[in-house]
Amino acid sequence: MNTMLRKSALGIAGLAFAGGLAAGPMHLGAPGTAAVDAKPVAVAVQADQPGVDKAKLIPHGTQGDQSRIDLNDEQTANVKAIIEATKKSGLDERAAVISIGTALQESKLENLGHLGDRNDHDSLGLFQQRPSSGWGTPEQITDPIYSTMAFQKGLKQVDGWQDMPLTKAAQTVQVSAYPDAYAQWEQQAADLVAKHWNS
Fold first, then answer.
1. Which helix (DSSP H) or strand (DSSP E) does residue 50 occupy?
2. pLDDT tens digits for 80-89?
């Protein structure tokens, strides 16, 4: 089989395989907001790259109602930075799902600076990390690669994080006043990892 025909066949097989990805109905958790129905999304898998191991993305299923937001270019760039940092940390797709889900809850994937009266103490960046708590300098914390690697350094210290629900793993690192809030972002985080891990 010639190279061009082989790549076409592999590309079609990849699309057929990825076409099985579908998110179930998504409901926004905030009161008074409309439910969002997710539609099946085919993820293009390049023929020369291995696909994402989807079993690692959400090993035990999602917990509770799932939320979803539309991402702008900056938020998408931050997703890609989290994935890049995950690979630099030597971690797999599951760590990227936990990291992206955590950042969705903490900042909606926006690299937050000081928010004045709306600031949670001195929390900054994608993960709302605090310089006063030893996460790094404001400049470091607002660097998406640095902040992700700092979060993942904490994640690596959590025994069994790979097999935990996202919300438990995230809460163990973040110590949030709202420990269950991370759960709602697991499906969107997994979808983003499936889409961007090999891009």
1. none
2. 999 999 999 9
